[in-house]
Design a protein that fits this description.
- The protein has helices spanning about 5-10, 10-15, 20-30, 35-50, 60-70, 80-85, 85-90, 95-105, 110, 115-130, 140-145, 160-175, 180-195, 205-240, 250-269.
- The protein is mainly alpha-helical.
- Among the domains are: about 5-50, no CATH class; about 60-125, no CATH class; about 195-235.
């Protein structure tokens, strides 16, 4: 056996999957060749050490580096990372963007600390909001001096044109509000339909007259209803009941019994 053949089937020899003849040839070659014997001993020691060694934990950015080398199109830029930062912190980032965002955070040294800084800044803002700060002395006077030119509070009135426009706007706002516009449109459509269908002369007064006439007819019909019901009841009481019907079964029974003696007489003759 040559050394090249020995190295080729060395793994199968160690795993015990070669035949008996090949196993014998491998053992003889390892005893005769010092170089192959040393190689066999080194491989056996390495395999034994790997079996008892502790498997190291993969690094945090291992998957991200593998995907960056194999699928570079899925990598996220720093601008995209900052754009999706708020959605990531709120928990609204979709799954495919979520994994790309985390891979970029693991690889980019510039963006790695950005989420933590933003979270700390938001927490600091909430802390400062809960703490009420005292108003510095002289703040009101400085504001008045910067806006009105005087530190003494004075009543400031707007020009009469602005006051008139404000009052006109207060009077006009309820009229042009969307709710009142829809109601006014419905009322206008109802008036147009009634004047064209109910009114005789096409005016609102005609609609009123038609309504009065309809009410009078309804009142007259309601007054005539009890009298009509009384007439119907009287007619029902005066109508005689129908005569009882004669049963035909009795007649048929008599005819049948009358024919039987005749047949008996004929039989006796």
């Amino acid at each position: 056996m040559l050394c090249v053949d020995f190295e080729t089937i060395l793994t199968d020899y160690l795993e015990g999957v070669v035949g008996a003849e090949t196993n014998r040839q491998m053992a003889e070659h390892a005893m005769k060749c010092p170089l192959c014997h040393e190689t066999l001993s080194a491989v056996k020691s390495t395999v034994a050490a790997c079996r008892v060694a502790v498997v190291p934990e993969p690094s945090r950015d291992l998957d991200a580096r593998i995907l960056l080398k194999t699928v570079p199109k899925t990598a996220m830029t720093c601008d995209e990372f900052e754009e999706f930062l708020t959605d990531y912190l709120d928990g609204f980032l979709p799954a495919h963007l979520y994994h790309r965002w985390e891979r970029h955070a693991a690889l980019c040294e510039r963006c790695t600390e950005l989420p933590g800084e933003v979270v700390r800044s938001i927490g600091a803002c909430y802390t400062y909001i809960s703490e009420e700060k005292p108003v510095p002395a002289g703040l009101h006077e400085r504001i008045l001096q910067a806006t009105l030119g005087t530190a003494t509070p004075q009543e400031v009135k707007a020009p009469w044109t602005a006051r008139a426009a404000s009052r006109f706007r207060l009077w006009l706002d309820p009229i042009i509000s969307p709710q009142l516009v829809s109601v006014a449109t419905m009322i206008l459509v109802a008036v147009l339909v009634l004047t064209n269908t109910v009114s005789a002369d096409g005016s609102i007064g005609g609609v009123y007259d038609a309504g009065i006439a309809l009410a009078e007819r309804t009142s007259a019909q309601s007054q005539m209803l009890p009298a009509n019901l009384q007439k119907i009841n009287d007619n029902r009481e005066q109508t005689p009941p129908p005569p009882p019907q004669q049963k035909q079964n009795g007649d048929q029974h008599k005819d049948t019994s009358g024919g039987k003696p005749e047949s008996n007489g004929r039989r006796s003759r």
